[in-house]
Amino acid sequence: MMNEKHAKRFERHKQRLLDGAARILHEYDFEWKLLEADPALGQDRPDAVVEIGEGERKTTFIVEIKIRPRTAQVGAIVAQLGHREHPGLLLADYINPELAEELRRSEVCFLDMEGNAYLRGEGMLVWVTGRKDTRRIQIERETRRAFQPTGLKVIFTLLCRPELVEKDYRTLAQVADVALGTVQWVMRDLIQDGYVHREGRTGRRLIQLDRLLDEWALGYARDLQPKLLLGRYETRAFEKWRDIDPRRFDAVWGGEPAAALITRYLKPETLTLWVDKPTPRLLAELGLRQDARGRVQIRQIFWKPELTAPGLGDPAMETPVPLPELAAPPVLVYAELLAIGDARTIETARKLRDEWIDQPLQRYRARAAV
After folding, report:
1. Does the pLDDT of residue 320 top 80, yes or no?
2. Range 117-121 average pLDDT
């Protein structure tokens, strides 16, 4: 877990980034004003609110700080910074040129400590890229164990079924398919980071659910998704994917085909199958051949079937509309779409979140507030 020592180191590092941003913007002849650090904006808890500009022409930004963000996280970053009253600003120690271009294309503002920047606002346009990373930051936010691969599985379980936070740790460990000790340190981290509120000696409830979902999607793209790839394939029967019933292979659709089934909004350009293992029968019947750049991905399923089965937690929390039996849980599909990171999958991810994720989370908030 991120203990008190690590937490203090990160807070010091965050302050260095905020101070560094002020210095860099001064070099660009813009004023920087920190309006509030760690503000409480309803359910949202960004790192800061700042004002950037010149004279009376200033723009307010909601700041999110990330340590060494990666290109694979661009979709999750765009989703996190793009749904607020004021424009978002990604502040980082270093943003590589590929990520910088993707962020600019998505019109997400950013600034790093090398001076790479994309800023749009009233009377302001800054686009600087290509400055090299000349230093290595020692403290990384990713050291929080809750957001490492095993911890991400526990958080995934809670996002799918938030009422499980009220159950004993052994039940949560069984559903998440992790060791009891894993649940214990993940819960310590989530309590310390302000995602779980303790009520009395044994009561618990989830808070900051929107931010937890954003952070989980970032962690999924960075640490969990790469570990779960079993292989890439190509097939001549790509356009006939709807004719395939993955249940025959103890599998479900993920990513784009799952989003197409759930939202009826997307024409897949890639196919993802979540399966225990890619059996010869599956490969033969789907006509799959290995291809390092193939459009078909087979990934290792990491959750138990009972996670999406009725009657696991509080009946009042069940999804009111049955989910397609052929699709992975919406929380996972959402993160997969963001990890793809192009405009059409990000748009579909927002639609999926609005219709299939936010509503159950809102029902949980209402229930937990009673």
Report:
1. no
2. 90
| HEC letters along the chain | CCCHHHHHHHHHHHHHHHHHHHHHHHHCCCEEEEEEECCCECCECCCEEEEEEECCEEEEEEEEEECCCCHHHHHHHHHHHCCCCCCEEEEECCCCHHHHHHHHHCCCEEEECCCCEEEEECCEEEEECCCCCCCCCCCCHHHCHHHCHHHHHHHHHHHHCHHHHHCCHHHHHHHHCCCHHHHHHHHHHHHHCCCEEEECCCEEEECCHHHHHHHHHHHHHHHHHHHHEEEEEECCCHHHHHHCCHHHHCEEEEHHHHHHHHHCCCCCCCEEEEECCCCHHHHHHCCCEECCCCCEEEEECCCCHHHHCCCCCCHHHCCCCCCCCCECCHHHHHHHHHHHCCHHHHHHHHHHHHHHHHHHHHHHHHHHHC
> All domains of the chain, ordered by start, with CATH?
4-128 (3.40.1350), 144-213 (1.10.10), 226-369 (no CATH)
Query: Kindly report the CA angle at 245 between 241 and 248, in degrees rounded to 5?
Result: 135
Specify the residue for token string 């039940």. Answer: 171
- The per-residue pLDDT for range 325-358, each reduced to its tens digit, is 788 999 999 999 999 988 899 999 999 999 889 8
pTM passes above 0.90: no
Q: 301: pLDDT confidence band, cut at 50, 70 and 90?
A: very high
Q: Give just the sign of the alpha carbon dihedral 42, 69, 141, 128.
A: negative
Determine phi and psi for 253, rounding to 5 degrees. -75, 145
User: Measured between alpha carbons, how far is 267 from 342 in angstroms, rounded to an integer?
Assistant: 13
